[in-house]
């Protein structure tokens, strides 16, 4: 849960990869300590470029990105080195193979810890702890490149989590993963967030954005065009159409039902199948069940 203290401030950031080109167009954005935020938007809208600015991997041409560490200390991504920043903010690449380069899993995790000066005993503790958190204990001495793609993604996340940054940024962590692996990855991030850390994830999976995160930031053509809780952002049809985003399917069903059905089924907008199930079940407890519904297991007040 967020505590309303800013942890990152992005102020009027402009950026282009090549002279004369513009990818980010004056972005203003603040992230609070303890938030779990997803950044969404169509391909090429600038999501990765924006998130790489948070970690200092890219520096703004104009404007500034400031990180606050909670003790009153602040870091400017243009002034401070990536090593100084990496103790406070970590970035997990979209493709884990862009990040992994050791031939042993524990050494891969240890590399970042050595870089930020963690002493050997503590390194060992942290390695064990993140291997457990990411369910990779049995692979500790194995070669990262013999892992499945999902396990490699978890290793990439583990290497960053081991450094215990205040903020972890993950770029499309579930792309190419099956449903079970995608949930495992999101659960790892959720656990980290539950321990008070800030998580910023780029995703194209609206279902996961809706289910896991407190706040959705919508990027289009290098600027933020919407920002709010998923239950609000996914109702703003015009913004979604403009940015070519479709809300989760269950949310679309809820929206259509509200528009077209006179029945008062929805207590609040559905973001997950569980939300829908709960409302439908409670609706059928209030109203006489239509013929056949009880047989299909939704029940009625007399059941
Ligand atoms: N290294 C680079 N050099 C030049 N242009 C780049 C580079 N990386 C990205 N771009 C361009 O910047 C724009 C924004 O790209 P970015 O990867 O930030 O978008 P994105 O929203 O993350 O896209 P996707 O969802 O496809 O990953 C695109 O036009 C892209 O072609």
From TrEMBL:
State the GO CC annotations. Answer: ATP-binding cassette (ABC) transporter complex
Q: Name one Pfam family in it.
A: ABC_tran
Stored SMART domains: AAA (SM00382)
Keyword line: ATP-binding, Cell membrane, Membrane, Nucleotide-binding, Translocase, Transport
The record's annotation in PANTHER family points to: ABC TRANSPORTER ATP-BINDING PROTEIN MA_1418-RELATED (PTHR43553:SF21), HEAVY METAL TRANSPORTER (PTHR43553)
Q: What does this protein do?
A: Probably part of an ABC transporter complex. Responsible for energy coupling to the transport system.
**UniProt family annotation:** Belongs to the ABC transporter superfamily.
What is the protein's given name? ABC transporter domain-containing protein
Recorded source organism is Halarchaeum nitratireducens
């Amino acid at each position: 849960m967020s505590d309303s203290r800013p942890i990152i401030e992005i102020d009027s950031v402009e950026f282009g990869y090549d002279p004369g080109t513009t990818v980010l167009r004056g972005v203003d954005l603040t992230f609070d300590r303890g938030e779990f935020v997803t950044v969404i938007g169509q391909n090429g809208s600038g999501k990765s470029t924006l998130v790489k600015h948070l970690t200092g991997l890219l520096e703004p041409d104009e404007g500034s990105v400031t990180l606050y560490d909670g003790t009153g200390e602040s870091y400017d991504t243009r002034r401070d080195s990536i090593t100084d920043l990496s103790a406070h903010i970590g970035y997990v690449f979209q493709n884990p193979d862009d990040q992994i380069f050791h031939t042993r899993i524990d050494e891969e995790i240890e590399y970042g810890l050595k870089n930020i000066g963690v002493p050997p005993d503590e390194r060992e503790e942290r390695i064990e702890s993140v291997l457990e958190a990411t369910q990779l204990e049995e692979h500790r001495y194995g070669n990262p490149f013999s892992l499945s793609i999902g396990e490699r993604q978890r290793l990439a996340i583990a290497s960053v989590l081991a450094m215990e940054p205040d903020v972890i940024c993950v770029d499309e962590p579930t792309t190419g993963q099956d449903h079970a692996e995608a949930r495992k990855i999101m659960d790892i991030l959720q656990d980290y967030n539950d321990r008070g850390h800030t998580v910023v994830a780029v995703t194209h999976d609206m279902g996961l954005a809706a289910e896991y995160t407190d706040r959705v930031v919508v990027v289009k053509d290098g600027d933020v065009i919407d920002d709010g809780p998923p239950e609000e952002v996914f109702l703003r049809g015009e913004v979604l159409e403009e940015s070519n985003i479709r809300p989760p399917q269950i949310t679309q069903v809820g929206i259509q039902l509200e528009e077209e059905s006179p029945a008062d089924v929805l207590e609040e907008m559905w973001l997950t199948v569980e939300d829908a199930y709960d409302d439908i079940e409670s609706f059928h407890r209030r109203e006489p069940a239509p013929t056949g519904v009880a047989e299909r297991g939704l029940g009625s007040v007399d059941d």
